[in-house]
Structures are given as structure tokens and as C-alpha cells.
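Colleagues,

For the teaching module next term, I've prepared a clean inverse folding example: a structure given as C-alpha cells, and then the sequence designed for it. I'd like students to try predicting residues themselves before seeing the answer, so please don't circulate the second half yet.
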């Protein structure tokens, strides 16, 4: 397979929600329980999908837009969202699942010497729980959450922070995601980006994003990178 990168790579940074794991059912369940606790109707998955991507606070803001919700109520809904999300994991009721080919992709990349990290806008403790319940936490040496840095994606800071923690330059990395947040953050950081088509790009088709490459699923990623030798940048 022809590659689009002509320099050795050492690391692959992955988005979480909509890229590695299907977390939309859990997000929707937690949000709807928080909404109903305040007397609002539950929302269908398709509506919640449109708000996912920039963290829980933005999700709540988007999902309450146009409703008679004051700031204090919105804060209670946000707090309730986190409470209900945590409860799903604590009770082993989370529905999170890896997308097809994810485990195989991660194992193959590690076998070829790539270092792997997650960079997500999800709160870090919830990201760790989702990755653990999704059966893939062990594949990653680092998880950067939405509360790790001052800024979140689409700002480049979380990506640059991940590489700093790994002791790697931007030239050594590739970003893999599903949304404009990932593409914009990677562009701002000077990192090439690959996009999967099935994610949570605010309800818009990720295949329309101006990425360096698109794959139909993560099972294709090792083949895409096969012509690039992993390099020890240490």
C-alpha cells in the first residue's frame, strides 16, 4: 500500500470516542439520566451524536440549547452526567465496545515497535475506565484527557503534551481520529492525521474531513504504515 508519510515514525496518537471505542450509548444514557433528573425529556442517540466531541460541558450546552435552562440548572445537568457516567462503570453496566479491528490494529502496531497513546477530550478518569472496560487500556503507555492540559482539542496543546511526556518530537508522530477536532489539532501541531469514517464528527460525515488519509477501519492502519519503519527516537 502506498504511504503518505515519507519519514520514520515512532508513535501513534489516537482519539478515543468514535475512533477506538463506541461510547455513544454510555454517553447518551448518562446524559439522559441527568436531563430527566431535572425534568427534561430524554434525547435519541442521533441527537446526542451531534453534541459529542468537545467534552462534556460542550455536550450539555449543545443539548440544552433552545431549552429554558439557566446556568445553575446546566451545571447540575453536567454534574449529573458525570455521576451517572461513573455509575455505569462502577456497576459494570457500561455498554462501551471497541470498533471492529481495533484490538488487532493496536497489537500489530506494538509488534512493529510503535508507541501508542490516547489523546481525548474526555475527562481522564472516565477515559481510563472506558479504555479498561473496552479491553484496550493495556495497549497504551499514556492517556491524555480533556482535563490534563489547559486546552483541549482542537487546540494542539494536548497532542504536544503527549509527545513531550513520551520524549518525542512532532516529526515522530501520527494522529488518528474521527472528527474536525482531531484534524485541526493535528494540523496545528504539525502532525499528519488519519481519519476513520464511523465516528462522532458532530453528526457530519468524517469522510469529508481534509485528512492526510482515510481508512475504512483501524484494521487498515498497520497496512497503511507498513512502508514506514518504526524508529527509535530516544
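(Answer key — instructors only)
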Amino acid at each position: 500500500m502506498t504511504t503518505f508519510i515519507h519519514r520514520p515514525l515512532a508513535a501513534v496518537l489516537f482519539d478515543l470516542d468514535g475512533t477506538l471505542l463506541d461510547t455513544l450509548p454510555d454517553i447518551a444514557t448518562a446524559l439522559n439520566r441527568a436531563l430527566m433528573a431535572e425534568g427534561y425529556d430524554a434525547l435519541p442517540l442521533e441527537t446526542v451524536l451531534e453534541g459529542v466531541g468537545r467534552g462534556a460541558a460542550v455536550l450539555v450546552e449543545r443539548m440544552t440549547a433552545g431549552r429554558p435552562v439557566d446556568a445553575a440548572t446546566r451545571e447540575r445537568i453536567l454534574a449529573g452526567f458525570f455521576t451517572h457516567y461513573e455509575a455505569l462503570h462502577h456497576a459494570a453496566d457500561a455498554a462501551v465496545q471497541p470498533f471492529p479491528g481495533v484490538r488487532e490494529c493496536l497489537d500489530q502496531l506494538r509488534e512493529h515497535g510503535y508507541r501508542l497513546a490516547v489523546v481525548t477530550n474526555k475527562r481522564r478518569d472516565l477515559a481510563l475506565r472506558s479504555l479498561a472496560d473496552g479491553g484496550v487500556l493495556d495497549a497504551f503507555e499514556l492517556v491524555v484527557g480533556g482535563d490534563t492540559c489547559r486546552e483541549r482539542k482542537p487546540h494542539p496543546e494536548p497532542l504536544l503534551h503527549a509527545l513531550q511526556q513520551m520524549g518525542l518530537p512532532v516529526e515522530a508522530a501520527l494522529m488518528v481520529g474521527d472528527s474536525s477536532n482531531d484534524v485541526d489539532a493535528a494540523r496545528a501541531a504539525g502532525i499528519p492525521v488519519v481519519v476513520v469514517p464511523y465516528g462522532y464528527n458532530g453528526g457530519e460525515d468524517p469522510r469529508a474531513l481534509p485528512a492526510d488519509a482515510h481508512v475504512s477501519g483501524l484494521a487498515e492502519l498497520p497496512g497503511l504504515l507498513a512502508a514506514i519503519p518504526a524508529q527509535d527516537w530516544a
